[in-house]
Specification:
Order of helices and strands: HEEEEHEHEHEEEEHEHEHEEHH
Helix content: 25-40%
CATH topology of the largest domain: D-Maltodextrin-Binding Protein, domain 2
Number of strands: 14
CATH architecture of the largest domain: 3-Layer(aba) Sandwich
Number of helices: 9
Largest sheet: 7 strands, mixed
Distance between the termini: 21 Å
Oligomer: single chain
CATH class of the largest domain: Alpha Beta
Structural class: alpha/beta
Number of domains: 2
Strand content: 15-25%
Radius of gyration: 19 Å
Length: 269
């Protein structure tokens, strides 16, 4: 999806040092679904860790891109909302939401029972599982093969719990996908578990003969992805769900998934 020039002007990227305007936006979307002229100036601030291919700002155009990024832009366009972007580490997304630095988390966040105790989730945006990344030439072909090896995952993700069950000799955690992938490349860890879409997209964008994605691979976490809002923001939740339902009725929904390496297997009702 390409944003129109009109819409592109309404996208603003915030960083942790520029929060003054974002702190006052917690209830901004209560009337966003009506489509009136007044609603055209409504603004929602999304929180993301800026990791491709989920929700990230394009280095060349400054536009919000990615699977989740393009979906929220499609919903916002239909609702007549402005979108601002607050960037933070993945493990601080929920704290940032609770501190009202953003209105909604849009970052391929798995819907889990533990997280539902803290925030509300929208209906499922799409489904995906984890991928297993290893050095090129590795004999690792599945989860059973990683026993006794040094394992890695990104801090704050469900994969930190997964690697704790696999009887590795050591577990290491990293603050970003890039750092995790680099650790496999330089031999710091023997195997990494992270979002399969991230791995596939990274290797398409930047082929690396030193690492490889194990395939075929049956994921342990064929998880549902959703956007997160504060418990009290029920009107925003309803608006997001209605916008998502409308998006799923259009060809654009599957087109966004396919653009970033996913497909019909990742579609949810």
């Amino acid at each position: 999806m390409n944003m129109s020039s009109r819409y592109a002007k309404r996208l603003k990227v915030l960083v942790p040092l520029a929060l003054v305007g974002a702190l006052a936006l917690s209830g901004c979307s209560a009337d966003a679904s009506t489509g009136s002229d007044a609603d055209a100036e409504k603004t929602i601030t999304i929180a993301t860790s800026n990791d491709a291919p989920f929700a990230f700002t394009d280095a060349d155009t400054g536009e919000l891109s990615g699977i989740d990024g393009e979906m929220i832009l499609a919903i916002a366009e239909a609702k007549g909302w402005n979108v601002e972007v607050f960037v933070t580490d993945f493990n601080t997304l929920i704290p940032a939401l609770m501190a009202k630095k953003a209105d909604v988390i849009v970052d391929a966040m798995y819907i889990t029972d533990a997280r539902k105790k803290e925030i509300n989730f929208t209906d499922s945006w799409y489904m995906q599982g984890e991928g297993l990344l290893v050095p090129a030439g590795s004999t690792v072909k599945n989860r059973d093969d990683v026993k006794g090896l040094v394992l890695g995952a990104q801090t704050g993700t469900v994969f930190t719990d997964l690697i704790g069950t696999l009887e590795g000799s050591e577990t290491q955690f990293f603050d970003s996908q890039a750092a995790l992938i680099a650790a496999v490349e330089n031999g710091q860890i023997d195997a990494a578990f992270t979002d399969s879409a991230v791995l596939a997209y990274s290797l398409v964008q930047k082929p690396n003969p030193k690492i490889e994605l194990v395939t075929p691979y049956t994921p342990y976490f064929p998880g549902q992805i959703g956007a997160g809002v504060r418990m009290e923001d029920t009107e925003l939740l309803d608006d997001l769900n209605s916008g998502l339902a409308d998006l799923k009725k259009t060809p654009q929904y599957l087109e966004i998934l396919q653009k970033y390496g996913l497909g019909e297997d990742n579609v949810t009702e």
